[in-house]
Design a protein that fits this description.
By secondary structure, the chain is mainly beta. The chain has one helix spanning about 130-135, and strands spanning about 5-10, 15-20, 30-35, 40-45, 50-60, 60-70, 75, 95-100, 110-115, 115-120, 130, 150-155, 165-170, 170-175, 185, 205-210, 215-220, 225-230, 235-240, 250, 260-265.
Amino acid sequence: MANHPATLWIGTRKGAFAARSKDRKTWKLEGPFHRGNEINHVVADPRDPKRVYATVNNGWFGSHLHASADGGKTWQVSEKGMELSGVPDQSIKRLWHIEPGHADSPGEVWLGADPGALFRSKDWGTTWEQVNSLTLHPTREKWNPGAGGMCLHSIQCLGGGRIVVAISAAGAFRSLDNGATWEPYNGGVRADFQPDKYPEVGQCVHKLLAHPNDPKTLYQQNHCGVYRGKLTGKKWTDITKGLPTRFGFALAVPAAEPTTLFTIPIEGPEYRCNIGGAL
């Protein structure tokens, strides 16, 4: 099979970069885009790869969503209507995750922010609306910010109105009706830092992904272990056995392998460094 041109977008604390390749063997690095800003997430829309979204954060100028329609050549702030409402004494602190919608929902884009807020656009990110069904969820009073804030950092759009998100520290939530209603999905997941070790909500998910070729299979790297679950399951299965620690942030699930995932164990929440200071 012939190789196809590829672009890998990379977000850093100093800006965004694009690694481009025509043969997937040699790469050319472009950037930084949004020079000197913290890019929590940058992603190309697989439905239209020239559309690129970036969550751009700056300690002085605040958090803004930037969008490009020409593969990163030019960018514009794209956040009309993105305002937090219904959460007393709170405002948007930081933008975290931007997720293009599924192929069966053209124009739909989702955005997660701190404090535990979810937004949706139906016009490729031009205008936004708060998803009250999650942002104002009845369990919200039991949510608490993690060390990085109350960040909604994982969004998986699985088609047919099925969406899964994760918030630190509130846990995982799933919707089977395109965000009209949300159900906590945290059964079997530990919260060692709480009096109740297995609460309904309050778990500290660090990353949640669905398998690219099997969207009903979910994985998460949690504050307290690595877990596998099913989209409509009641409980997660703890699969941490064999790892030197339960703590970590990174998670990757390769599309080509049905049961493989990658994570990078970290010593623990008190000393957030790779084991032995190395990979």
